[in-house]
Amino acid sequence: MRPASFTATSLILYLFLFLLRRGTLTTGEITPLRRGFYAGVCPEAEQIVRETIRRAMTKEARSGASVMRLQFHDCFVNGCDGSLLLDDTPTMIGEKLALSNINSLRSFEVIDEVKEALEKACPGVVSCADIIIMAARDAVVLSGGPNWEVKLGRKDSLSASQEASDNIMPSPRSNATFLINLFHKFNLSITDLVALSGSHSIGMGRCFSIVFRLYNQSGTGRPDPHMDPRFRFKLNRLCPVSGDGNITGRLDATPAKFDNRYFKDLRRQRGFLNSDQTLFSDDARTMAVVKRYSVDQKAFFADFVEGMVKLGDLQIDQPGEIRRNCRIVNDAPREETREAVS
Asked: Which domain of life is it from (predicted)?
């Protein structure tokens, strides 16, 4: 992760985390999120979202995991406000080029399809921030995971910040201690951390994210000792030291199915990312939760749902709107609009 400099943006981010840790930035005090928010104004909204995600996953199963990740990368940066979806403009570098997002996050076009369908049915009603929350839930459900009612009513931000994302989003190199401390800043527990890490039950990861584990863990010039030798041999072939960093490998043995196999793989030292394997190998507190989920899928599902709801509650007090196009603010100049749409 890039070191944080003490700039104005960094100060704002620090104050956000400080207030959030004190419990002053909660959903109830900012926007009254609630279940069934669109029932009276756009009753078909949730059905439209799910059917669009279903079609996208039929075309490409991996898009489900990609869509689900958007909630994490949006909500951790200044709350769940759809800022992640904004394209860069001549006056703003957005979050898509942040260290944890560039060449990594994908399926933005799926959100575009959802928004287009919703604008036809209910113009100017459903926010892009809420679309992310609904789409993430639906991606889990359509992959065989749990279902839950989402709280809705968010507004879309008027800006985005690459620096804010760089200063908060964890690296694939992160260890358990760093992750525990990060989640604590958001009032998320160790159980929340492990359960939400289970989002890697579906999807793929890039070789770029693991070559250090294979060849130079912690600067030792040697592979990560917490890796099954046969698994490491497979990854060596997939990700040679000078190979294409954008080649992808499975995050667990069942990457299209949302289940507890991810935790079983961690116990076998077959975690793809360092930030995953560390949950079993480096801290007794997270290890205990991994063990529990590896034998109790129902417990994992229940805690995952609770963690996703908590994650969706993250907000800060800022101006907002209902964007007509998730990539641009409503009052964007014409030249910026053409650039963003193209």
From this structure: Eukaryota
Angle (deg, nearest 10), helices 62-75 and 297-312 = 50
Measured CA to CA, the distance from residue 334 to residue 53 in angstroms comes to: 30
Token output for 156: 């879309």
- Cα–Cα distances (Å) from 120 to 30, 108, 290, in that order, read 29, 19, 44
Residue 81 annotated as lining a ligand binding site: yes
Model confidence, pTM: 0.87
**Residue positions annotated with a catalytic role:** 73
DSSP notation for 285-305: HHHHHHHHHHH-HHHHHHHHH
Distances (CA, A) of 48 to 91, 154, 272: 34, 18, 34
Distances (CA, A) of 75 to 31, 84, 136: 15, 9, 12
- Known binding residue 225? Answer is no
- 254 annotated among ligand-binding-site residues: yes
Q: What phi-psi label fits residue 240: left (phi over 0), alpha (psi between -120 and 50 degrees) or beta?
A: beta
The token duo for 44 is 């078909």
List 204's β-bridge partners, or say none: 250
**Which one, of 259, 49, 196, lies nearest residue 135 by Cα?**
49
d(CA 260, CA 69): 18
Q: pLDDT by residue (tens digit) across 88-134?
A: 999 999 999 999 898 889 999 999 999 999 999 999 999 999 999 99
User: Please, are residues 155 and 127 in contact by the beta-carbon 8 Å criterion?
Assistant: yes
- On whether the CB atoms of residues 276 and 246 are closer than 8 A, the answer is no
Q: How far apart are CA 2 and CA 166, in angstroms?
A: 6
Q: Tokens 């939760």 correspond to what residue?
A: 289
pLDDT-derived band at 336, boundaries 50, 70, 90: very low
Tokens 């100049």: give the residue. 333
Contacts of 189 by beta carbon, 8 Å cutoff, 6+ apart: 183
Q: Is 184 annotated as a binding residue?
A: no
**CA 167, CA 51: separation in Å to the nearest integer?**
35
